[in-house]
Amino acid sequence: MNPTTATVLDPLEIARQLARQFAQTAAERDRQGGNPKAERDLIRRSGLLSLSIPTEYGGQGAAWSTIFKTVQILAQADSSLAHVYAFHHLLIATVQLFAQPAQYQHWLQQTVQQQLFWGNALNPLDRRTTVTPVADSEYLFQGDKSFCSGSVDSDLLLCSGYDATGRLLIAVIPSTRSGVHFLGDWHNMGQRQTDSGTTHFEQVRVHQHELLLNPGPLSTPYASLRPLIAQLIFVHLFLGVAEGAFETAIQSVQGQKAWSKSRVEQAVDDPFIQRHCAEFYLQLESVRLLADKAVQSVQQAWRIGPELTAEQRGEVAVAIATAKIASTNTSLYITEQMFQVMGARATTAQLNLDRFWRNVRTQTLHDPVDYKYQELGEWVLTGKVPDPSFYS
């Protein structure tokens, strides 16, 4: 695949082509961990990195429904690559929500022209990175930041730190800036090729024009769409992984003999396997409908823009919380129960099929689903919508 091909094909077809390529090596790359440089470069060359960038900056200006669908398709094959790809688009949305066009125009144009990949070093819960002013328009970032998904092999880095007053400052800098060090210490059980380890900032100089100050993080209902977009990314990651596991189970059953005590010959005719697969399908269809509703609410809020009200933002939050709960439960259920359908042979280490469960189990711990239940339950009982935060 090359950029010329990418200008001809539909983005969803490009995502499907990439997914087919990634699927061929996903099991082995999961075992290896580390940085999937070759696969990231395929994404660069595909043209999909400009999908969410407005057309006035040279991008494709795609609807959120298309963007999330590409994430879902990639996650069916490789949720690590889907994760870093999705976060790239989250970070592009972040600058549009936290800054003004005059500031972010250059970054977006550069991204299109040079096929730049954005990396994440935001994590507002990790306060170890401090920001100290050293001149009227210059600051020093110092310290560590954890869970920096997609940071390794990125071109631009969205990073954050806290100043002496406790204010969160967010900046966009080149990933190669002097003093930025990626420690490569991500060795978790799932999402093993997301490079979600530590970034160390050693007296990193950040200029005033690189700080996202107007309107700044979560400063308005519209700006606070950022965490909702992040949550909806997780919905589509979980949905995609569950779909990938489901398809793997369905393909595995084809041609298998039924269990010896069954009254049928073929596994596809076994009533217990049929029941399991029906349950998988039912749960997936439910999540798809909830995800579609949530995407529509985000798209409408995005169209409204800075005039978005707190009430309108709250309605989006409720729709996404509902989809987040359902996608979490469904993905964990299917990736565990798929073995009940496939049988003992599916547990061989060569197939590495436990990666589906390990990936969603890891990513679903990003923020506790119990608090999504709490937010949704409070809304059901009192009508109170979730308060804006970096996680709701």
Proportion of residues in helical segments: 40-55%
For the largest beta-sheet, the strand count, sense and barrel status come to: 4 strands, antiparallel
**Helix-strand sequence:** HHHHHHEEEEEEEHHHHH
Overall geometric form:
globular
Number of helices: 11
Average pLDDT figure: 96
Give the DSSP E fraction (strand runs of 2 or more residues). 5-15%
Enumerate the strands of the largest sheet in spatial order, edge to edge or round the barrel. Answer: 2-3-7-6
The parts where pLDDT drops under 50 for at least 5 residues are 1-7
What is the first-to-last residue Cα distance? 37 Å
Count of individual beta strands: 7
Q: Over all CA atoms, what is the radius of gyration?
A: 22 Å
Structural class by SSE content: alpha+beta
GO molecular function: 3-methylbutanoyl-CoA dehydrogenase activity; flavin adenine dinucleotide binding
Keywords: Oxidoreductase
GO biological process, one term: L-leucine catabolic process
Protein name: Acyl-CoA dehydrogenase family protein
Note down, in words, how this protein is organized.
This protein is α+β, with helices and mostly antiparallel strands and 392 residues long. Helix content is 52%, strand content 11%. The protein has helices spanning 3-8, 11-32, 37-46, 64-77, 79-98, 101-114, 226-253, 271-304, 310-342, 355-363, 369-382; strands at residues 118-121, 130-135, 138-145, 156-162, 168-174, 180-182, 199-207. It has a four-stranded antiparallel sheet, with no helix packed on it. A three-stranded mixed sheet has the order 1-4-5, with helices on one face. Strand 4 (156-162) and strand 5 form a beta hairpin. The chain is globular, with a radius of gyration of 22 Å. The two termini are 37 Å apart. Residues 233-368 form the Acyl-CoA dehydrogenase C-terminal domain. Residues 16-113 form the Acyl-CoA dehydrogenase/oxidase N-terminal domain. This is Acyl-CoA dehydrogenase family protein.
